Amino acid sequence: MRSWAAETARVHLASLPRRWEHTRGVVRRAEKVSGAVDDPDLLVAAAWLHDVGYAPHLVRTDFHPVDGAEFLAKQGVSVRLCALVAHHSCACIEARNRGLAIEWADERTALRDALWWADMTTTPTGDITDVCDRIEEVLERYGLDHVVARSVTEASEELLGAATRTERLIADRTHV
């Protein structure tokens, strides 16, 4: 699954250099924590595919988590992978703010938290950051009145919670 996900992401995102670098950085972060979740391959696959909905030819709703999940569903991937992509980084809040529904359930597991952590601790250029700095970067990039900035602000407590839980998982694994 990892190799298919990596190739699919490359095909659809390599023409978007900044998005591709971010995706590769998210994968590196996901690999760091993959041994602490129930399905390491699924986590890494979700990291590869979390932003596939940004590919211009896949845009339908203009909201990349939903567009990516819909594309993946048409490819016949698991419902769980579609849900992880659809809900990455608390996308349900932005979906609601855009008047969109997400048809997949948010699983609220350590794996889901790890994907959110990987995304929210990776800069747009693929470097490592912390969640607070990443949230600040999003607010600066979009401006406080933009739906993305408003949604990230509203989601910040959930994002910080997922990051805290994931960092505990990492710490617990290093102390074993």
Automatic annotation (TrEMBL):
Residues 19-135 form the HD domain. It comes from the Bacteria. It holds the Pfam family HD. Gene3D superfamilies: Hypothetical protein af1432 (1.10.3210.10). This is HD domain-containing protein. It comes from Nocardia uniformis. The lineage of its organism: Bacteria, Bacillati, Actinomycetota, Actinomycetes, Mycobacteriales.
